[in-house]
Prior knowledge:
The chain has helices spanning 30-40, 49-62, 73-89, 116-120, 139-148, 167-176, 232-242, 265-274, 278-295, 348-357, 402-409, 421-434; strands at residues 66-70, 103-107, 124-128, 154-158, 180-184, 192-195, 198-201, 208-212, 225-229, 301-303, 311-312, 319-322, 330-332, 337-339, 363-364, 380-382, 385-386, 410-412. It is an alpha/beta fold and 436 residues long. It is globular, with a radius of gyration of 22 Å. The structure holds pyridoxal-5'-phosphate.
Amino acid sequence: MNDFRTDPRFKGIEPFEKKVWLSSPTMHGDEQKWVDDAIQTNWVSTVGANINEVERLMAEYVGVKYAVGLSCGTAALHLATKRAAEKLYGQAKPNAGTLAGKKVFCSDVTFDASINPVAYEDGEAVFIDTETDTWNMSPEALEEAFMLYPDVKLVVIAHLYGTPGKMEEIRQICDKHGALIVEDAAESLGAKYKLGGRWVETGSLGDYNAISFNGNKIITGSAGGLFLTDSKEDADKVRKWSTQSREAAPWYQHEEIGYNYRMSNIVAGVIRGQIPYLDEHIAQKRAIYERYREGLKDLPVRMNPYDAEKSEPNFWLSCCIIDEEAMAPMVRGENDYLYTSESGKSSPQEILDAIASFGAEGRPIWKPMHMQPIYRTHPFVTVEGNGRGRTNAYIKGSGVDVGADIFRRGLCLPSDNKMTEEQQDRVIEIIHRCFR
Ligand SMILES: Cc1ncc(COP(=O)(O)O)c(C=O)c1O
């Protein structure tokens, strides 16, 4: 990483006294009360009043009938995916995944936890390219995917950075093809979407839904996640699987494979203390997004977009994307990068290095799954159809790849809700200096 503190372009800018985070936990005090309550009443286990309350309050907030407290969002996504697969393809043997031999359409620009459960269950993720209006799964590319793979019956969709995707279109396409949806609302808790003229919460839009309380999320329990559903049968099954699939026998009796995925009552105490502050956190994140939009408007960059008519993001992370003409040369290897500075231009890695030099944390856009070494042999579908193998030795490839483009030109900005206006102004000033 280059240190920009001695670069003349940044003269007069002081380093931050305390690190400015991308998105860190924000405690309010009630968390301690509920953790202490669990300890004092000796409910230090995967049962207790905190878990019951978190499940009740969050089901109410999201507008679903049932919530099942789990150890993390990844566990919630795993059991959501497994439950969907079992519904579609039946119960697998204990030593086989429920998706063996099956393909699943998946969001491409997302954190790998969204889609790894497909592999846990022995399925093959087919990555669907991204659209430019919300940076989520492209309905057009999804249509193309159903043309290429008409037998697919499951779609895993995430709402990137807290911005709802085009769920109305995606639901219509899935219904047409008889496919079920696993919704990953890990990043979008509290974001709303207008479906059929009615505002609904993300986390209630799929057939099987998951949220996360990871330490970087809009509210946290240090860890934790929820499986959300309107089906009592699904909720009961997921709760059973999450507690090692114990049967109602005096001894340990098992009819099916189980997991140790249940939420801890201590973790639930932290979440219980955070829930009353969810809306306040969203308002703070929105203010940060709007200040960036205003502060960066004279630069050749745009903020991460959303559909203001049909959605209300939770603004979990503020991001920006540099106009093509203003991109300075930048190359990324597997684990390293190189860029040059040019007058009037910059690049995501230069901006990230610059803000890091002064003590602020940003991050590259989540690298698309179809570009990840582990998934490079998996299919990738764009609005043009098959997105793989479009180049040859004689013709330079010019295929559409929206996700790769957002990864190349975009970045996540410091979005911590404890960031002061002065700190944010300084981040904005550093970004301006990068373009000098
Ligand atoms: C989109 C997305 N899905 C899933 C997860 C996994 O959640 P957890 O860390 O709670 O397992 C995360 C973040 O951590 C995420 O950002």
